[in-house]
Design goal:
structural constituent of ribosome; 5-stranded mixed β-sheet; 21% strand; Ribosomal_bS16_dom_sf; 149 residues; 51% helix; Ribosomal_bS16; elongated; S16 Ribosomal Protein, Chain: A; alpha+beta
């Protein structure tokens, strides 16, 4: 089976968007796919390009051939350079200010959640130590009471 990485058209009639998909080369353009790797939306400025780099590397590694347009997208994201063994491969995808702000807000939320988990973990550990100390103290009192009798 010849496997290709190509674009699957989605969206409205005059507002096309695409999904980057892995598909058997004999299937129709919008037919059944093996796996979806990402999205490409050419409408906004700059275009939205999101491709799962790990999965793209995997499919390139097992011999999937990208179409010309997908090859251009993979060059922009730096995945072709990574696949060819370049250590300094970087993504040249432009990110809009709204996406940067959304990513920053998401990072802040993730950091807050991590801090909350850490705080809860420390509080649980402290409570556990206090309970252990209280149990040891009550055990000592019981042994002292037993020695007095």
């Amino acid at each position: 089976m010849a496997v290709r990485i190509r674009l699957k058209r989605v969206g409205k009639t005059h507002a096309a968007a695409y999904r980057v998909v892995v598909v058997d080369s004999r299937k129709k353009r919008d037919g059944r796919v093996i796996e979806e790797l990402g999205i490409y939306d050419p409408q906004p400025n700059p275009s939205k390009i999101r491709i799962d780099s790990d999965r793209a590397q995997y499919w390139l590694g097992v011999g999937a051939q990208p179409s010309d347009q997908v090859r251009n997208l993979l060059v922009l994201t730096g995945d072709i350079a990574k696949f060819n063994g370049k250590a300094d491969a970087v993504s040249r995808v432009e990110v809009s200010e709204a996406d940067k702000a959304a990513a920053a807000a998401e990072a802040v939320k993730a950091a807050e959640a991590e801090a909350e988990k850490s705080k809860a973990g420390k509080a649980a550990a402290k409570a556990e130590e206090e309970a252990k100390a209280a149990a040891e103290a009550s055990a000592e009192e019981a042994t002292e009471a037993g020695e007095e009798a």
